[in-house]
Amino acid sequence: MIEPKRVLRALAEHWNLLEPLSERFDGGTLSLGELRQQLAAQQLESTPQDITALLDVWIRLDILVPVAKSPNRFELNAQIHDFLAYLRREHRLGLCLEIEAYLRHLERLAGHIQDAFDIRDGHDLARQLRLLDMRVRDVLKKLDNDEQALVGVAERAKTSDRQIPLRQRYAEVLATWDEYVEPMIQLVNADGAFEQGVRKVETVLLRLLSEQARLGQLVDDDMLLRTHARILEMQTSAQLTLRHARELLLPLREEARRHNAVTRGAALALSVIRRKGIDAVPQAAMPLFTRPQSTFLGSASQVEAYVYALARFEPKPAQFPKAHKTHKGEPTRAPRTVKEMLERCEDALPLPDLMVWLLEQEPEGATDELLYWFSRLSREKRFKRERLDRRDYTTREHLVSLRSFALTSSRETSPGLSPEPAASPAHAS
Predict the structure, then answer these.
(1) d(Cα 14, Cα 58) in Å, to the nearest integer?
(2) How many CA atoms lie within 13 A of 156 on its CB side?
(3) Stretch among 13-27, 76-90, 313-327 having the lowest mean pLDDT
(4) Other Cβ atoms closer than 10 A to 221
(5) At what angle do helices 193-215 and 221-276 cross, to 10 degrees?
(6) Per-residue confidence at 419, pLDDT binned at 50, 70, 90?
(7) What letters, b where the CB count within 10 A reaches 16 and e where it falls short, cover 303-342?
(8) pLDDT value at position 245?
């Protein structure tokens, strides 16, 4: 066993040397010569013997460990590396499968807790509850680490060199979405493994609380309540981590996908232009410029929308009529005008029944059109009308019951008589 005080004292004493070395070890292992060069560059006044003595101390304390089958290459001890990353506030994104494995273990522990309570073994019950609490804290720690790592992924994508193609700059974002966020969405769904596991453990703990109140205490209720509260905190933390991940990475992922579509559209347009000229570009996908192109080339959003539309452009197939095809039936007749109908009605006077005359004139007319002409002609001042008894009239679409009129010319009206007032809509039904 290595004495912890000596390791911690060495880390504190040589922190200025270990911190830059840990960044180099993030990229892989280092040979003994590379280690000596790094330390010599940081300690200009040190002799080769001093550097050798310092490396011997680190190797003896297991801060540096030799690589398997390569004794001349070294790497940082994994635990020391994680500890230095924690001190430097660096977070490495883990696997979503780790959370799922933790959940399976929580379900097994819940089964052990139920078994220990059934046989009334208080010591085993307390031990299993402590293990459950430790595993829940492990999940919380992992979720917090993953959330900070996701923030780092988004920040690196936003602050990377703009000269690098977007696909390369956002490669880590796309990989993180596919390997972590998508599985996490499936895991935290309402019917996912996370919710099911939490529900099983929560059911066991709540049953223990009720059974202890009935049968007597085996463990302190506070322990059950603390564990239950921590499980609910774990559930909330998982949902918040997933929401934060989507807010951070989804816009970047959509930007990369849209840029890929724009790039494909630009390549498609250029290839068509090279082969067939600018006239071959579909006019339906031309940019919507509001000024002459000689003085205005369009904003970035217009150009982007134009090229993006090119990538998804699909010309509609042109359908030409066959040479032998002929149009059957009469051409559509234009609607009759009021002047025409008034002249025809005046020429047909006297009319014994206006509605019968309209049905004869318009046998294929729609019901609403016939009723319109009936109302319009019956109210015309140049005609004298006389109301008839109610009867049924059959149009092309309906059976109409109304009181029609007999029309004569108003010139035949006696001087002392006045025409009957216009019929109200209540007289026709």
Answers:
(1) 10
(2) 16
(3) 313-327
(4) 12
(5) 170
(6) very low
(7) ebbbbbbbbeeeeeeeeeeeeeeeeeeeeeeeeeeeeebe
(8) 83
Q: For residue 27, what are its two tokens? A: 């990229």
Cα–Cα distance, 240 to 242 (Å, whole number)? 5
Parallel, antiparallel, or unpaired: how do β-strands 64-67 and 70-76 relate? antiparallel
Rounded CA gap, 388 and 365, in Å? Answer: 23
CA dihedral 130, 132, 135, 139 (to 10 degrees): -130
Whether 148 and 132 have beta carbons less than 8 Å apart is answered as no
Q: Which CATH architecture has domain 4-87?
A: Orthogonal Bundle (1.10)
CA distances from 394 to 329, 333, 347, 366, 374 (A): 25, 22, 25, 11, 14
pLDDT at 328 over 60: no
Answer yes or no: CATH 1.20.58 is held by domain 96-264: yes
Residue 41 in tokens: 């560059």
CB 401 within 8 A of CB 392: yes
- pTM, entire model: 0.47
Domain boundaries, the chain: 4-87, 96-264, 338-412+422-427
User: For every residue of 273-336, which 3-state class applies, written as one string?
Assistant: HHHHCHHHCCHHHCCCCCCCCCCCCCCHHHHHHHHHHHHCCCCCCCCCCCCCCCCCCCCCCCCC
State how beta strands 30-31 and 383-394 pair.
unpaired
- Assigned token pair, 159: 């602050």
Q: How far apart are the C-alpha atoms of 355 and 389, rounded to whole Å?
A: 12
198 conformational bin, left if phi > 0, alpha if psi -120 to 50, beta if neither: alpha
| Residue 236 identity (one-letter amino acid) | T
Beta strand 383-394 with 64-67: parallel, antiparallel or unpaired?
unpaired
Report the distance separating Cα 304 and Cα 236, nearest Å.
Answer: 40
Q: Which amino acid makes up residue 340?
A: E
What pLDDT is attached to residue 281? 59
